[in-house]
Write a structure and sequence with these properties.
alpha+beta, metal ion binding, 4Fe4S_Fe_S_CS, iron-sulfur cluster binding
Length: about 70
């Protein structure tokens, strides 16, 4: 059974590019501002259909997969 994708484990592992937010077919990802004013994606689990498009489009995840 598929699980809700993990976009990043630490904020430093997210560049804030909004690619995941933009590609989500169910608008299950929202960008939330942290205390320093940077936006980070948060997945709304009730909307997520676990298609993993957000993971596939992430430039940082792609770099990690290539290594």
């Amino acid at each position: 059974m598929k699980e809700i994708p993990i976009l990043y484990e630490r904020k430093e592992l997210c560049c804030g590019c909004t690619a995941c937010y933009s590609i989500c077919p169910k608008n299950a990802i929202k960008m939330l501002e942290d205390e320093e004013g940077f936006d980070y994606p948060i997945i709304e689990s009730t909307k997520c259909i676990m298609c993993y498009k957000c993971i596939k489009v992430c430039p940082i995840k792609r770099k990690t997969d290539i290594k």
